[in-house]
Amino acid sequence: ALNQLPDVSLPRYVRVNTLKLDVDSALLELKEKYSVEKDDLLPDLLILPPGTDLHDHPLVNNGSIFMQGKASSMVAPALNPEPGWEVIDACAAPGNKTVHLAALMKRKGRIIACELNKQRIKRLKETIKLSGASMLQSLKLNPSSDIHVLNEDFLNIDPKAPSYSKVKAILLDPSCSGSGTAASRLDHLLPSKAAGQDTDMERLNKLAAFQRKALQHALSFPAVEKIVYSTCSINQIENEDVIKSVLPIAESHGFELVNPFAEWHCRGLPVFKGSENLVRTDPAADGEGFFIALFAKKKNVQKKKK
Ligand code: SAM
User: Fold this and answer.
1) Which residues are listed for S-adenosyl-L-methionine binding in this entry (predicted)?
2) Is residue 129 domain-shared with residue 254, that is, in the same domain?
3) pLDDT at res. 200
């Protein structure tokens, strides 16, 4: 069935890990074998012809480039953390967005990579190691650099604890149905699917309840100024509905929805005022169905707090 994927004709994207290699050097090296172009939205993203197989490429094996789709590579830049900031990646494994944050922050600042699942912590640590970012053993050590891995339930992290008092940005990429990914869109081809309709709805409701809770929790960190929420789902219930239900709480904390990619062609479903700030990627045109929402503290609120 995989051969019938609708997106075999779509380009292959790779994200250059600027912790290890600059974009132009990656471009030059890949150009020896492939026709490569720079992406017009993300400066660290390169576009290769459909079907390019890079699995065993030396640049992939040594962590200089990551095989990461465009939509997934848009999330950390949407948050756009500044070097020196303290940032939480709330649901971090396998860590693609964690190490993208580290690259954008140019090794300056602190990233707390929180992951509930012990098995997936291993993957997260491997990704961090491969990326060349350094890992901290303790939150209290050397607050001026890189990534601290935390095997915790994000919902159990106390926003009032002193270790989190300076957290300025949170990336929340919670567990979701994955309905925007190619593998999941082929689910209907599997014979077992029809029987599971009801439980699917139950599962979606459960996921959405967690997503809402996690987003509310993110909003409660005292110094947080930006929160990005993303899913690889195309379901309104996990996307616009989550944002809509949390928006009044966000606004009461002084946040507003802002548009991270003004020129982007695909927007959130128009189900509430402000949904034009939401970003969707289109499974057919963009290869994956992602959803991105960015909350930012209103400028005058930020000033008043200083
Ligand atoms: N951001 C990751 C990346 O780009 O590589 C992908 C994250 S994946 C969509 C969601 C992750 O959240 C899973 O690894 C899951 O185990 C973790 N997770 C689920 N519930 C959690 C919770 N309550 N606290 C922390 N992590 C959680």
Assistant:
1) 91-97, 115, 153, 173
2) yes
3) 87
Measured CA to CA, the distance from residue 285 to residue 128 in angstroms comes to 31
How far away, in angstroms, is 210 Cα from ligand 1 center? 11
Residues 145 and 222 placed together within one structural domain of the fold? yes
Of all atoms in ligand 1, which is nearest to the CA of residue 117? 16
How many angstroms does the Cα of residue 203 sit away from the middle of ligand 1? 16
Provide the annotated active-site residues.
232
Show the low-confidence residues of the chain (pLDDT under 70).
Answer: 1-8, 136-145, 183-198, 301-306
Number of compact structural domains in the chain: 2
Q: Which residues contact 190 (CB under 8 A, 6 or more apart)?
A: none
Alpha helices in 139-291 (DSSP H): 182-185, 197-219, 240-252, 283-286
pLDDT, residue 299, reads 82
What is the CB neighbour count within 10 angstroms for residue 164? 19
Q: What is the pLDDT of residue 47?
A: 97
- Which of 115, 216, 291 has the most ligand 1 atoms within 8 A of CB, as the residue to mutate? 115
pLDDT of the residue at 8: 61
